[in-house]
Amino acid sequence: MALRVDLTFDTVDAEALAEFWKLALGYEDEPPPAPFATREDWVASFGEPEEDEGGGAWLQDPAGVGPRLCFLDVPEAKVAKNRLHIDVRVGKSADQWERIVAKSEQLVAAGGRVRATFDGHHIVMIDPEGNEFCVAA
């Protein structure tokens, strides 16, 4: 039996980074687990937060196919290149390079940056907190 995978980002601003990735992937906010009416109620069920404990955000694929994304604020800064990255796939088509470029431009407007362009194949990008990812077909 295969196991389900969640991808968790350590963040400086979980809510802002979640907004970027909602745009990048077409994900939506994940509702709180039952029986909680709000995420705040769910978080409060764990008791008083630690002094350095920050916020969080949770996203889901509306089709239920992709992994759940978790964003958790942490006190320490990112100090190295990530060893795992996400490939944002726009789909293979006759106009796939134009679609890759358009998605990259959309994500730059949302706070991402282009690190490298491999014409006709993929674009390496950085999200607003410095995490690398690729836009490809």
Task: Report on the architecture of this protein.
The chain has helices at residues 14-25, 39-44, 96-109, and strands spanning 6-11, 28-29, 56-60, 68-73, 86-89, 113-118, 122-126, 132-136. It has 137 residues and is an alpha/beta fold. The strands form two sheets. Strands 1-4-3-2 form a four-stranded mixed sheet, covered by helices on one side. It has a four-stranded mixed sheet with strand order 5-8-7-6. A hairpin with a 7-residue loop joins β3 (56-60) and β4 (68-73).
Helix content: 10-25%
The DSSP helix count reads 3
Distance between the termini: 29 Å
Give the class from helix and strand content and strand pairing.
alpha/beta
Fraction in beta strands: 25-35%
- Biggest sheet, open or closed, and with what strands and sense? 4 strands, mixed
The number of E-state strands comes to: 8
| C-alpha Rg (nearest Å) | 16 Å
Task: Itemize the secondary structure elements and their pairings.
Layout: E1 6-11, H1 14-25, E2 28-29, H2 39-44, E3 56-60, E4 68-73, E5 86-89, H3 96-109, E6 113-118, E7 122-126, E8 132-136
Parallel strand pairs: 1-4, 5-8
Antiparallel strand pairs: 2-3, 3-4, 6-7, 7-8
